[in-house]
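help with this.
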Amino acid sequence: MVELEDPWPPRYVSYPAAQFMMRRTEHREFNALYHELARRAINGARGKRKEIYGKYIDKRQYYLENFLCRIHDIFIQYYEEIAVEILWSKLHQSEEQDGEKRWAARETIERTVSSKAAKRISDFVSFVSTEGGQQVAINATEITLIATLGALRNLIVHNDGVPDARFLARVAETDFRFELQKGGRVEIEESWLLEGAQICDAMVFRFDQHVVEHFSLPARDRFGLFWIR
């Protein structure tokens, strides 16, 4: 992947995009805090500086694995939420229903999207692209990233990060290359992961701008947003 500047969202964003921004902001702030606390602990350790730094390095991959899973889940959560809004908008434009039937239809849409999201990430993104009328991933880098994030996330959660046949089959379809740690787990490069997070941000903002305009979805001025967590 190539080095990118931080992507900026459009001024007006959907509610799912506003939630995505909140989650990603919290994620970035925690990442910065984690590294700041580690730096202070190492620098203030005096006689144990080398020991503390060694422990930090030993646990860095564990932290990156959790960081990757959260990036993946925040990314997918946006597309689940925006897919519901797109399908709801289409239904609302085509049918006039009373309140009870409308909310029953909303629940059906949410169940449909949730079942799609539980499948392979590439298939779910393809579904959202079709419903949204625009590709989520528009180039080889983005397609590879989506497939790799999904494969790595599942490997970490279900097999402790140790490559199995399913993972190898999935990454064989991409140009992703990896090294193994001493224990046989996939080694995650921090620079690759941070760059991937920026690409995910850019995909969300680009797609959101399209669907807000195309489906006339309710939008919020991001400059007027505030969050309480």
Q: What stands out?
A: The CA atoms of residues 60 and 190 lie 9 Å apart. The chain has seven helices and two strands.
